[in-house]
Amino acid sequence: MNWKKTLVTAFRFVIGWHFLYEGISKLIVGNWSAAGYLSSSTGPFSGFYQWMGGSEGIMAVVDPLNIIALILIGLFLIVGLAIRLSAIGGVVLLMLYYFAHPPFGGSLMSPAEGSLYIVNKNVIEALALIVLIFLKDKGYGMYALPMFSKNKKEESAEDKTPDNSRRDVIKNLATLPALGVFGIGALIEKNKYGVDTLSGATIQVGGADIKDLKGELPKGKIGDHEISRLVAGGNLIGGWAHSRDLRYVPSLFRAYNTEKKIFETLMLAEKAGINTINIGFPTMETMAKYKKLTGSNIKVIVQVGPDNEKKDIYVNINKAIDMGMDIIQIQGNWCDWLVRDNEMEIIDKMMNKIREQGIVAGLASHTIDSLIACEEQGIIPDYYMKTMHHDQYWSAHPRENRFPFEVDGKKHLDHDRFHDNLFCLYPDRTVDFVNRVKVPVMGFKVLAAGAITPEDGFNWAFKNGADFICVGMFDFQIVNDVNITLDTLNNLQGRTRKWYG
Description:
By secondary structure, the protein is an alpha/beta fold. 47% of the residues lie in helices and 9% in strands. The chain has 2 domains: 3-193, no CATH class; 219-490, Alpha-Beta Barrel (TIM Barrel). It is built from 19 helices and 10 strands. The chain is elongated.
C-alpha cells in the first residue's frame, strides 16, 4: 500500500466531508440564510458584509450559491475530481468566512471555538487546502482514472496489465464506499437529532422573521433625540433576570447572551426599527464596543449613580460622558435610596452636572414616592422613567403588605411579602402622577419581569400615559414585540394624557 497516497486521500476526504456536510445541512434546513452572520460582521470589512446581509436581493443569490459551492467543493474533494480547482474555491470561501468575523481587532469570539487570536479553524483549513493545491501527488481519486487522467502516455506497459488496471480503479474509487458510510451515519444522526443548523458560518435567529414586520415603529422626542416608542431594555443583556426564586435564570441569561449574541440582537433590533437601548452602567463598555465595531447609530441611555460610598457623585457621570453615551439618567434604585435617606440634594447635583454637559438628564424610580418627593423639591428631569405595570398577576403580593422603597430591598420567604416579584408597588398612584406631569415618561418593567403578557403590558402602559416603553428582549422576541407595539398603538383606546415628546 502506498501510505503517502493513502494519507493524502484521507486528508482530502476529511476536508471535503466538512464542506459537503455543511452544504447539505443548510440545504436540508430549507430556510437557512447567512444574512444574520453577515449582518453581525465585525472587523475591517464589516461594512461590505453588512451591506450584503441587509439586502434581500443579494442574499437571494448569495445563499444558494454558498450552499452549491459547499456541496460541490466537498463532493469533488472527496471523490477526487477537479481537486486543484475545488481547493482554490475552498480557500476563497473560507477566507470570505474568516474576514466576516476575523479574530482580531476587538472582533467577537465564539465560545464554542475557544479563545482565538488571528488563527481560527478557517485559517487552518485554508492552509491545508493550499498545501493540497501544491502537492504533486493528490492521493487516490477519480482524477486518476483513464477517462479523466491527463497522463495516459506516461503509463508503462506494466501499469497497463489488466490486473494493475483493475487494482488502480478500485483504489481510486475507494473514497466512494467511505462516502457512503459517512452519508448513512449522517442520515441516521439527522433522523435522530435533526440538523445542527449552527454549524460553521450558520447563524439562525429564532422567532418571527424580520420580513414579518407589520410596519415602522413610531418615534417621539426626548430633548433633541428622536426615540422609538419601543426602547430595548438592558437587563436581559446584563443578566439581571428578576426571576423570583428561580436562581438559575440569571446565569442562563448570561450564558445565552454572549457578546456575539448581544451584537446580533442589537443589529436585529435596529433592523426592526428600535433605535434606542436603556442599559445598566456595567453594560456601557459593551455598547461602546458595539457602536465602534459596527458603526451603529443606536442611541444609548445609561443609568448612573454615585460611587458605592457616595464619596464621588460625579465619577460615573464623567465615565458615561467619556464613553460617548447619548442620554444619562439617574438609576431607579439610587433615586429610591437617596430619597429614602433624605439625600435629595445629591440627585439635584447629579442632574445639574449632566445638564451642564449639554446632555439630556433622566430620573428613574421604582417607588412613586421618590418622584413625588423630588417634584416637591423642584427637581424636574427632562424625562421620567418609571416602573409601570398593573398588579393583576399571580405572584404580586397583597397591596396591604407593600411598603415604599422595598423594591431592591429584602426578599422575604413569605409569599405575601416582596420577593423580587413586584416593581410598580402602587399602580394607581403611578398613573395619577404620570397623567399630571408635563415631561415625557418612559415606562419600564411593563411586563413585571415576564409575569404579564406583552399584549396586556404594552397596552396598560401606553393607555395609562407612557410615551415610551422600555422592554428587555431576547433576539427571538424582537420582531413579535415590535409588531405588538404597532398593534397596540394603532388600536389604543382610553388614553387621556397627551403625548409628550
